Amino acid sequence: MYENLTYEVLLQRMLDRIPNTIDKREGSVIFDALAPAAAELAQIYIEADVIMNEAFADTASRAYLIRRAAERGVVPRAASKAVLRGEFNVNVPIGARFSLGNLNYAVTEQLTGFQYKLVCETPGAEGNRNFGTLLPVDYIDGLSSAELTEILIPGEDEEDTEQLRARYFSTLDSQAFGGNVTDYRQKVNEIQGVGGLKVYPVWNGGGTVKLVLIDSQFGKPSEELILEVQSRIDPLGNQGNGVGLAPIGHSVTVASVERQQVDIETVISYQQGWAWQDVKNYAEAVIDEYFLELSRNWADSQNLIVRISQIETRLLNVPGVLDISGTRLNGAEQNLVLDKDAIPVRGDMVG
User: Where does the record locate the signal sequence feature (predicted)?
Assistant: First the structure.
């Protein structure tokens, strides 16, 4: 706003107010007296520009955006710890600690048999990435096998600035109240491990609500996450009684997004010296990335569409690929419209 009010402009404006009968050249008494004042005024205008940006949520930096969002009860979501399944050959004590790579995990609950729930001690998405053999921090008698096998509830990084900004503006766009769609979205999205949801009011008669979830890694949620959300929103056995976050009279069913397999057949012309086996891993990686991009938009889309043009464009950027044609999705040479509660997963891929 004040970018044109530079030191040179301000100094010249001040000098223009001095009669021409007085020496105003650089080095003169008047010039040397006004120059420091012009420099200070220029700095004030720079600070005023910063204040203007920080005063509005669309341009505020993180620190001031947090203060603005707090006025509407919106605070940044803190990093959360991943909850995972561990499998052992013996019973292990609750509280036992194990390490895998640079991360440590603590046993918190027995699931079934020798399977236990473990919590990563390091908050954030880093706890979602490692699987394999666990090493006990302290000796456990009879232990010969310890494996970290599955994510139950994904850990999440601290909410970034743009996500917080979008969430703040969403509170202005629509009002959450008394179990309306916005209310369910806000409450459920605050639960650890939830990456998005679709709300279906009156899906099975009056007073019924169906929530379909995707996890924070934009994949199919675990049964443990579905049960956790169900118990927080409307516990089984007490549905409709207002025991959870759902209003009295709302019978809520929590369900999982489904994976819909997408088989891809295509005719690829290769660069000299290349064949399908050489490009297969690259091709599968770009398709998986495309499907992940689609899954990120699932909660805001009526139906996801897997497009042949997108697949061919991405495959053309794969090393060794010269041209591509005749692409078929699940046997048909046309775009694939997924079910409304489905996300794509790569099936057989033939090039």
Answer: none
